[in-house]
Specification:
single chain, about 260 residues, alpha/beta, Rossmann fold, 8 helices, 6 strands
């Protein structure tokens, strides 16, 4: 124990002498004897140090596809009675571009009914789609319980999951109380088509477009889907004689 303590004292004394010499010994002429160490020169200067950022940079966004998805899709088109008129022209686009389409028309339905039932999940399992089109909102243009509709639209999108989709907004005949704002917020501008901006010739009920306006509407949606949507697919303009080939399922109006 005494030997260890003695050795430690010797080492400590040597270190102390070295530091004292480096600090207090006067500078020597070059090449003549020992020289004082310039401790400051051994330390990096402020300009040599690299400042670290306070926060890490955000991750780079995932790049969007450079062009349309050219694969053949199984399209499930669901919604209210507005699907009835849109399906003919949209099915021509689907047929002309190698896709298939199944339509589910739930008359007088709204986001509330789709959200609180398993209807959408049932038809997703039945038809196994790779792309979903929705058109609903016309029956809730003037509702006041917007919190309920906000939650319903969120639930529908949750049911869709990771499948690519577009939501075709209702063709307003009067200003709505907020359903279009809800759709735009949940879907984003690249998944929500604002149909209210178009001008329609209406049927006798004052709400549903006539067939010519339905076709104009479908053509406008198609241009947006191909050129501006979040997941563009092959969707070129069909020839006039392209058949309107699609399956259709009709559902009775919901009962409260």
């Amino acid at each position: 124990m005494k030997h260890s303590l003695a050795a430690f004292c010797v080492l400590a004394g040597a270190l102390l002498c070295f530091v004292a010499f480096a600090r207090f010994c006067p500078p020597q002429e070059p090449d003549k004897g020992l020289r004082r160490l310039d401790l400051a020169a051994l330390l990096p200067s402020p300009k040599d140090t690299v400042a670290l950022p306070d926060t890490l940079p955000p991750p780079r966004p995932i790049p969007e596809p450079e062009g349309p998805d050219t694969s053949a899709h199984r399209i499930l088109f669901v919604g209210d009675s507005m699907v009835e008129g849109l399906r003919y022209r949209l099915s021509q686009y689907a047929t002309a571009n190698g896709h298939t389409m199944q339509c589910v028309i739930w008359y007088s339905s709204s986001s509330k009914y789709w959200a609180k039932s398993d209807t959408l999940t049932y038809f997703i399992r039945k038809f196994d789609p790779t792309y979903i089109f929705l058109c609903m909102g016309a029956n809730e243009l003037f509702v006041r319980n917007l919190d309920e509709r906000d939650a319903a639209v969120g639930e529908i999108i949750r049911e869709i999951g990771d499948l690519p989709f577009i939501w075709i907004g209702p063709p307003n005949w009067k200003p709505d109380t907020g359903i279009n704002d809800i759709l735009a917020r949940h879907c984003g501008k690249k998944r929500y088509y604002p149909s209210l901006r178009l001008k329609y010739e209406r049927a006798k009920d004052g709400a549903h477009p006539v067939l010519k306006s339905y076709n104009m509407w479908a053509d406008s949606v198609s241009t947006w889907l191909r050129d501006s949507s979040a997941h563009p697919i092959r969707w070129d303009i069909p020839e006039k004689d392209t058949p309107k080939t699609h399956g259709v399922t009709l559902l009775s109006p919901p009962k409260d």
